[in-house]
């Protein structure tokens, strides 16, 4: 039996979708525990490209149960669209997918509120550069205890609850003189239709997962976003509104920490970020542009160019501590193939002095002067290499350097977007977690 959490060790887009898809063959269920359709998890199966948003990547494996946990926020329209897209590829989503009755529902007015909030820079509010999916405002309603959960959406009481929430939003719209508040009756009619379609997939997913665990089945937890976007541990306020770090897997699914066997962080061999916020090792030169092109670093959800930079050791040590990583998976090693030298940020300085803890304020983060060590590039293609021992010596040295500096074993290396372009280190902790 093995229950394993796989999550982002950086600012998201580390290649979690590819890794979860690869591993899910060995698990009975794959569960998403936070976020919503702000996520974009890319999986290539041969020539076919899938971008999973709300639905766990495990759904691409026939027979694997795909769980949307209570910690996720669900836009039912987006969910049904994603289901239809997967069904067009012959995937039996409705048989595999289970949606938590405790997950919260995103409504169109959540998106409107987000747009307003993001557009108020003139009033001194910071724009986060969000994905405009209504994620933050939905979580706001959840924490304020006025949100609507999936269980309410499919209940006969839905209309009453909806009208109360809609009334609230009308008041907000009036207060801010917003004209595009939406047609609240049309939304009600749409959501009643969505509810009827989703209802057969709704259940108590916490009970389902715990029953599977009692039956000694294997559960894979799929993180969305990344630790540096976590609401508590990320670069607040330039974060998402959920617990992307490992603890979120328990609160977001109702599976106890005592049932978790391993925690694995996914990290690129370099680093990227989409949206605003501090980024100590960002490369704003043409080398950063080359990485963007070589790594095809454009957002899977919004198409925005991703900001690119160098592997950041202090950041990784921080996310390893917060999550308790047993093992690291390094992705996109091949993207560095052409480089003459590869800088790695090995330490942070503030006001000329070394700092060993991650600053907690934006000002503190922005004051960081990254200290780099330049490693020689290998200038050879690593694509198609299936054995770690067959990698160019300098690529092996680079990986060993990352392992030594971060203090976490590298259990797997990915050198291409496809399933078979992944190497797992024999005898690693990661290999032992894979059933
Ligand atoms: P996620 O959100 O963490 O699942 O990552 P995304 O799907 O948003 O972004 C990762 C991108 O890198 C996708 O386009 C993947 O197909 C691609 N990818 C994943 N692993 C590798 C790899 O090892 N090498 C290359 N070249 N591309 C990869
Ligand atoms: P995956 O799962 C990268 C970023 C947004 C923005 C901030 C808040 O594919 O790794 P939100 O819409 O969540 O309120 O936006 O978080 N962001 C992501 N960046 N990958 C993601 O998901 C992201 N999901 C949100 O760009 O800066
Ligand atoms: Mg992504």
Question: Could you explain how this protein is built, in words?
Answer:
The chain has 15 helices and 19 strands. With 435 residues, the chain is α/β, with parallel strands linked by helices. The protein folds into 3 domains: 4-100 and 202-262, Adenylosuccinate Synthetase, subunit A, domain 1 (Adenylosuccinate Synthetase, Chain A, domain 1, 3-Layer(aba) Sandwich), CATH 3.40.440.10; 104-198, Adenylosuccinate Synthetase, subunit A, domain 2; 267-433, Alpha-Beta Complex (Adenylosuccinate Synthetase, Chain A, domain 3). The strands form 5 sheets. Strands 9-7-5-2-10-1-11-14-18-19 form a 10-stranded mixed β-sheet, sandwiched between helices. The protein has a 3-stranded antiparallel β-sheet with strand order 16-15-17. A hairpin with a 2-residue loop joins strand 3 and strand 4. The model has no long low-confidence stretch (mean pLDDT 95). The protein binds guanosine-5'-diphosphate (GDP), 6-O-phosphoryl inosine monophosphate and magnesium ion (MG). Guanosine-5'-diphosphate binds next to helix 1 and strand 3.
């Amino acid at each position: 039996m093995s229950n394993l959490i796989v999550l982002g060790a950086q600012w998201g887009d580390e290649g979690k979708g590819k890794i979860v898809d690869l591993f899910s063959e060995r698990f009975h269920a794959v569960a998403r525990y936070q976020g919503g359709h702000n996520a974009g998890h890319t999986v290539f199966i041969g020539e076919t490209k899938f971008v999973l948003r709300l639905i766990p990547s495990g759904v691409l494996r026939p027979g694997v149960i795909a769980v949307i946990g209570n910690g996720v926020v669900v836009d039912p329209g987006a969910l049904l669209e994603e289901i239809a897209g997967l069904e067009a590829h012959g995937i039996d989503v409705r048989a595999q997918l289970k949606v938590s009755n405790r997950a919260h529902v995103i409504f169109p007015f959540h998106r409107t509120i987000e747009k307003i909030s993001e557009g108020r820079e003139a009033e001194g509010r910071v724009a986060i550069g969000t994905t405009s999916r209504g994620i933050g405002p939905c979580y706001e309603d959840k924490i304020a205890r006025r949100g609507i959960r999936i269980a309410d959406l499919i209940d006969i009481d839905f209309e009453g609850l909806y009208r109360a929430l809609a009334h609230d939003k009308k008041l907000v719209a009036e207060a801010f003189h917003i004209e595009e508040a939406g047609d609240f009756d049309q939304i009600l009619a749409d959501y009643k239709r969505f509810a009827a379609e989703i209802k057969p997939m709704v259940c108590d997913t916490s009970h389902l997962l715990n029953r599977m665990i009692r039956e000694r089945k294997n559960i894979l937890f799929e993180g969305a976003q990344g630790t540096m976007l976590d609401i508590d541990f990320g670069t607040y306020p330039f974060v998402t509104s959920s617990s992307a770090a490992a603890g979120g897997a328990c609160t977001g699914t109702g599976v106890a920490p005592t049932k978790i066997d391993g925690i694995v962080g996914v990290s690129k061999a370099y680093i990227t970020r989409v949206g605003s916020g501090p980024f100590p090792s960002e490369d704003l030169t043409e080398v950063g542009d080359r990485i963007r092109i070589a790594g095809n670093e454009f957002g899977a959800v919004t198409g925005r160019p991703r900001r690119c930079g160098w592997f950041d050791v202090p950041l990784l040590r921080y996310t390893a501590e917060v999550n308790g990583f047993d093992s690291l998976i390094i992705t996109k090693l091949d993207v560095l193939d052409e480089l003459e030298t590869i800088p790695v940020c090995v330490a942070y300085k503030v006001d000329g002095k070394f700092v060993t803890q991650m600053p907690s304020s934006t000002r503190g983060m922005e004051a960081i002067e990254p200290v780099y060590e330049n490693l020689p590039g290998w200038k050879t293609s690593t694509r198609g290499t299936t054995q770690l021992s067959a990698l160019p010596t300098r690529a092996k040295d680079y990986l060993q350097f990352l392992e030594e500096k971060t203090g976490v074993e590298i259990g797997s290396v990915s050198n291409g977007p496809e399933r078979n372009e992944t190497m797992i280190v024999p005898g690693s902790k990661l290999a032992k977690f894979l059933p």
